[in-house]
């Protein structure tokens, strides 16, 4: 009897480890569901919107300008932030606020990205903490799931003029 119970316990443990590994790989490499909070990405993403974030793009270095990404916060590694990629390594970006009279520019260093929220007046982003290492990117948001009346692919940046081609 003890042998039978021990055998079942080990089988259960084995299945738990297997399914745990499968779940880890799915969430790490394929993607997952994310609830966005805060006003920094309005009007594109509202507070409490639910989105799908795919993770293959970051592993294959396929992140492009204009993509919305989930990133480990440079200020608080325990939290994630949702921002739009404005510049990739080597790109020239405007580092000043939109309301500043004199505009300042900088180049994004190797291995980094420049991130900004769509709500420029209410966003803590690269204009505050500088370029973000590419390794902090967790995934790329590709689909809004909730609310259902807004279901679908995300729209282009309302701040398209901030993308510089120099």
Automatic annotation (TrEMBL):
It comes from the Eukaryota. Its EC number is 3.4.21.-. The active site is at residues 40, 83. One of its GO terms (cellular component) is mitochondrial inner membrane peptidase complex. Residues 16-97, 103-146 form the Peptidase S26 domain. CDD domains: S26_SPase_I. It is found in: Mitochondrion inner membrane. One of its GO terms (biological process) is signal peptide processing. GO terms for molecular function: serine-type endopeptidase activity. Belongs to the peptidase S26 family. IMP1 subfamily. Heterodimer of 2 subunits, IMMPL1 and IMMPL2. This is Mitochondrial inner membrane protease subunit. It comes from Callaeas wilsoni.
């Amino acid at each position: 009897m003890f042998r039978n119970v021990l055998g079942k316990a080990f089988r259960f443990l084995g299945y738990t480890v297997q399914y745990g590994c499968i779940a880890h790989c799915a969430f790490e490499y394929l993607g997952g569901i994310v609830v966005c909070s805060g006003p920094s990405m309005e009007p594109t993403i509202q507070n409490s919107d639910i989105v799908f974030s795919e993770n293959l793009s970051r592993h294959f270095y396929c992140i492009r300008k204009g993509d919305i990404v989930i990133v480990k916060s440079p200020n608080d590694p325990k939290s994630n932030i949702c921002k739009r990629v404005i510049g990739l390594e080597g790109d020239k970006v405007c580092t000043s606020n939109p309301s500043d009279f004199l505009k300042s520019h900088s180049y994004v260093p190797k291995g980094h990205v420049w991130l900004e929220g769509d709500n420029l007046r209410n966003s803590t982003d690269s204009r505050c903490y500088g370029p973000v290492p590419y390794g902090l990117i967790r995934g790329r948001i590709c689909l809004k799931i909730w609310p259902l009346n807004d279901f679908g692919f995300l729209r282009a940046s309302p701040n398209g003029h901030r993308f510089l081609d120099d």
